[in-house]
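[step 3/7] inverse_fold.run input=structure_tokens len=395
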């Protein structure tokens, strides 16, 4: 059986809390061979090696204490079949994805794919040209509560979308602690909003045409950080439906869960509403206090067969595993073919995956909305329109 060599770029929160536990599990399941992490600082790699001894991580930078291009060395050395997992600040995704595609490696990129339609277009074009699989990790597509909406919508049971309200808000530790050094280059709209923009598209298949967004700067600015606290976006979709999306990342530290979030959609034949944070399974412990607990995202459980081992389950893992499985299938089905036949087979498989997965042809939708939203927000709610190629422009 083929195994993938994985390079993870970025050694921050999502790498530590989700990607390495998943990769380690998939290594034990025989799907991953080597796990390599490339981050900016050598100390980050050393800490991850200590925290995940079983993963036998190889890391970059190896010589200098700090190197913002260590990821390029890792990709130069990556052996086929290789997969590159990008988990760096959002504004670095495009350059890293394009480089990995040029090297011919399949890619999993954390949401959002990138921040501009121009970059998303380049990624789409070069990934198709090179026959490379590029998957954006929109894990909410794997939340069965939300996937059920897509099912009923596509089966015609909901009728046609009219309007939607989605909200996604996180505790202030996100901009204050986890990525203080890049939150000024992002916003709650780009960092959080991207999920429920993708969700509306995933459910309905409609295209966004007009965006109006407002943002507020009060709390973070008072703490010396020039970033938006919150944002509200009105997205008009191609059939005239309107989605109202509310995001913020300044919830109090004592909020009983990291994320408050939910999705409501009204259609001509029915309505769906869900609180995707409160799943009615809550803890109160002396260690953590009162906790609104979402067991479905990504949590450890006792492994049925090795109860002294943690098994991580949930839609956060399922999304990454879907992409790993797709890449394994591509490699298995092209393994014994000559170069031309392998390329044709790759292109054919990727064009099938494009219909159902957040490959660049789908991930570009939320990139277009966040780019237009940012343009609108900095002009205090000026309308921004998307043309037939999703290029945003003021009137
Ligand atoms: N899927 C999810 O649930 C989820 C959750 C949180 C974040 N994210 C996304 O994952 C990405 C990373 O977020 P995070 O929360 O881990 O951020 P983070 O700030 O905790 O980590 C980012 C990491 O990238 C590293 N980095 C920065 N510049 C680099 C460079 N030039 N080369 C190599 N490494 C570099 C930093 O040193 C850090 O280790 C973002 O795109 C974010 O939007 C996804």
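[step 3/7] decode complete -> sequence:
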């Amino acid at each position: 059986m083929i195994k993938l060599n994985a390079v993870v770029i970025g050694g921050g929160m999502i790498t530590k809390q989700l990607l390495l536990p998943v990769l380690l599990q998939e290594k034990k399941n025989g799907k991953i061979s080597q796990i390599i992490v490339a981050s900016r600082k050598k100390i980050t790699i050393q800490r991850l090696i200590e925290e995940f001894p079983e993963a036998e991580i190889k890391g970059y930078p190896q010589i200098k204490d700090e190197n913002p291009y260590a990821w390029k060395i890792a990709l130069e050395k990556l052996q086929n079949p290789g997969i590159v997992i990008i988990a760096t600040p959002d504004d670095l995704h495009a350059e890293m994805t394009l480089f990995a595609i040029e090297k011919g490696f399949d890619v999993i990129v954390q949401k959002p794919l990138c921040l501009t339609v121009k970059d998303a277009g380049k990624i789409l074009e070069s990934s198709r040209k090179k026959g490379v699989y590029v998957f954006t990790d929109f894990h909410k597509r794997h939340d069965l509560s939300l996937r059920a909406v897509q099912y009923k919508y596509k089966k015609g049971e909901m009728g046609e979308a009219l309007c939607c309200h989605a909200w996604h808000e996180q505790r202030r530790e996100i901009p204050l602690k986890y990525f203080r050094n890049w939150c000024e280059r992002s916003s709650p709209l780009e960092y959080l909003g991207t999920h429920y923009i993708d969700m509306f598209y995933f459910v309905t298949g409609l295209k966004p045409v007009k965006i109006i967004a407002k943002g507020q700067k009060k709390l973070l600015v008072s703490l010396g950080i020039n970033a938006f606290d919150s944002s509200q976006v009105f997205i008009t979709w191609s059939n005239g439906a309107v989605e109202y999306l509310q995001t913020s990342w300044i919830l109090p530290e004592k909020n009983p869960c990291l994320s408050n979030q939910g999705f409501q959609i009204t259609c001509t034949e029915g309505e769906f509403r869900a609180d995707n944070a409160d799943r009615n399974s809550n803890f109160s412990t002396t260690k953590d206090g009162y906790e609104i607990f979402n067991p479905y995202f990504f949590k450890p459980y006792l492994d049925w067969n090795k109860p002294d081992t943690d098994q991580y389950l949930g839609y956060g893992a399922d999304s990454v595993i879907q992409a790993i499985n797709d890449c394994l299938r591509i490699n298995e089905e092209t393994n014994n073919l000559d170069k031309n036949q392998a390329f044709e087979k790759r292109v054919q498989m990727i064009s099938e995956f494009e219909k159902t997965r957040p490959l660049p042809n789908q991930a570009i939708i939320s990139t277009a909305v966040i780019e237009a939203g940012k343009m609108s927000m900095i002009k205090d709610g000026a309308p921004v329109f998307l043309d037939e190629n999703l290029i945003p422009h003021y009137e």
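[step 4/7] annotate
The radius of gyration is 21 Å.
The longest helix spans residues 315-334.
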